[in-house]
Amino acid sequence: MTDQYQAFAKSPIGKFVIKNLGLPAPTFLDRFDSATPVVKGAVLVGAAPAGTLSGAISQVLANIHANSYAGNNVELQQVAATQGLKLNAFNDGDRESKFKAVVFDASGIQNSEQLKELYNFFNPVARQILASGRVIVVGTTPETAKTVKQAIAQRALEGFVKSVGKEFKKGIAAQLVYVDEGAEANLESTLRFALSPRSAYVSGQVIRVSKADVIDVDWVKPLAGKTAVVTGASRGIGEAIAHVLSRDGAHVICLDVPQQQADLDRVASEIGGSTLAIDITAADAGQKIKEAAVAQGGVDIIVHNAGITRDKTLANMKPELWDLVININLSAIERVNDYLLEHDGLNANGRIICVSSISGIAGNLGQTNYAASKAGVIGVVKFTAPILKNGITINAVAPGFIETQMTAAIPFAIREAGRRMNSMSQGGLPVDVAETIALFASTASTGLNGNVVRVCGQSLLGA
Ligand code: NAD
What sequence ranges are listed for the domain Ketoreductase (predicted)? Predict the structure, then answer.
């Protein structure tokens, strides 16, 4: 649905009214377009002394042919040169240059005093980042730090990045990427995502990259040859997921309830996919999913997107509403995963991706059933990730306010509050959730396992 306030905010009269009343001013966010490069503009790179990730960062920037700049940091220039990255000179007294992205290797920060490196690097350029720009800080996973002081300093990065996300406005998104020791070569899919408009509505997030096999991919079609099953694919977020995974090269099996057959057929025909009209709560749903993918070489990716809300305060909630929501949103996911994992139903390097919700992180009035189910989904991810084998990974996205039929049905005042109470001052689009799912689905994302990334424009809910 259209955001009329956003359109108004762009008009001359709207700009005047919003400025004078101090109202939120939503920027039109850049979104992915295959005709544009990963980063449309200059990238400024910085690093604290003795960082261990500048090589990996430089490698990615070289691979995407980023127009990269750095200040007078000899160590960084030398590391970049070894990766074939040319860093143009940037004098931090230059107030004219504008950057589309700023990437800082914070892995060298060993203690809290050295956090000043962040200040020294970002303070002079804080006003020089373009609209829909990106701030990315890359650090060492605190749990793998060599000393307690280093772990504390690395943990501190989170507060810095989340504050930048709230402060910079203009649709600028800030992310923190923690990299385990030895996982440098697994960084590329995450960095590409965080740099690009694919992460338009993802901000203030922490993404953890762990060490895993490195698989080379065609970055234009990272899912070529893969088969993906998307539940709830006939409309809304599921429809967008089906489109994005298909764009990335996958054959998509679109799953939804039989009542949705017409829309399911439409979506599948738009993307050259196939359909599976079943209820995911059926006892044999896992088996049906496995069988549906046999002709395509088995399931490589399963996206558990189907979900419902049945909101009532706890005192007014009928038991069947509790049961329905828990069964569809949580128990069905557990049963399907159990079946696929126990019956060889997921190929090696398979991907399980769940759709949670910020309601499952923060809780929400009238949503005890829904929030319990969506917090349970986070539990599925956290407790399944460590026991997976054969390169299979599991991750989740937790959407905030996304413009769909579900949110269009919310009463006006609550809807406006949900839309504006985030760093982007607007709702996200189904495609924003789909792009984040595509990051986890990517064949290159071997190092992403057990992550929960919110797609919420850095919503204040559960912040
Ligand atoms: P939607 O209602 O538009 O679509 C959900 C789809 O799931 C429908 O096509 C429906 O038929 C299908 N479905 C429901 N029960 C099913 C079952 N038993 N078996 C098979 N399919 C079933 O909702 P949406 O807004 O696109 O949401 C998609 C997911 O994102 C849900 O899990 C939802 O909880 C989550 N989410 C949405 C938002 C938002 O703002 N829209 C925010 C947070 C989380």
Answer: 226-400
How many angstroms does the Cα of residue 278 sit away from the middle of ligand 1? 15
Interval between CA 235 and ligand 1 midpoint (Å): 8
Atom of ligand 1 nearest to the CA of 399: 43
What is the Cα–Cα distance from 8 to 132, expressed in whole angstroms?
19
Residue 463 has pLDDT above 60, yes or no: no
Do 31-209 and 227-455 share a fold?
A: yes
pTM of the entire structure? 0.95
Domain residue ranges of the chain, discontinuous segments joined by +: 31-209, 227-455
Q: Sign of torsion, CA 430 201 454 206?
A: positive
Residue 119 bears catalytic tag: no
CA distance 72 to 333: 52
Write down the CATH superfamily of domain 227-455: NAD(P)-binding Rossmann-like Domain (3.40.50.720)
Task: Name the residue type at position 263.
Answer: D
- DSSP three-state, residue 254: strand
How far is Cα 420 from Cα 24, in angstroms, rounded to an integer? Answer: 7
The share of the chain scoring above pLDDT 70, in percent, equals 96
